[in-house]
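FAQ: What does a ligand-bound record look like?

Like this one, built around zinc ion:
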Amino acid sequence: MKPEFHITTNIYAQRFVLQLEKWIQQNLFADFKVTAKFDWNPSRRSSRGGIYKDGPGINMAMYWAMPNNYGLTYQFKEYPSFDADRYIGGFFSTDPHHKLEAILAHEVAHAVQFFSYTKTHTKCKPHGPVFKHYYKLLREEFVNKKLPEQSSLKADYESYLAKISKISVITR
Ligand SMILES: [Zn+2]
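The answer part, i.e. the structure of the complex:
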C-alpha cells in the first residue's frame, strides 16, 4: 500500500483518538491522557490498550484495523462473548473507517479501564463489566450513531457470500 495512505490514515486515527480523549476528560477523568502508536506491519495482528511506562496508551495493528473492502459491505466482528451485543457488538458497514473507529474505541476503553483501576484500586477481567461500561460509552458517542441501517447491509453481505461460494464451486 502507498505510504501516503498510511500517513493520512494515521492522522485520521490520531484525530479520532484526540476526540475520545477530550470526551473522556470532560465526562470521566479530567486528567486522562492517552498516547497512540500506529503499527502497519502485517505481522502485527492484534491491537492493544492499557497503561504503559508513559501512562495510558494504545498500540494499533493498523493493517488489520482498516479493511480493504473496495466499497463492499464488510462484517466487523467483536469478541465472541459480546459480538451479538446491541451496543458493543459487531456490525456491517461499507465505510472502512467504522471498523477502525470501533477498534480505536475498544483499545481506548482498555486504557480508561486500567486508568480507572489506579483511582479505584480495584481490578476486573480484561473484557469484564468495567471494560464493557467504558467501551459502550465510547461506542455510543463516537461509532454507533454513524453506522448505516444494519438489516439491509446484512442481507447484502449474505447475498454476496452466497455468490462467492458459487464462484468457488465453479472454478474448483
Ligand atoms: Zn480487548
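Follow-up question: can I read anything off the structure? Yes, for example: Strands lie at 35-39, 48-52, 55-61, 74-76, 91-93.
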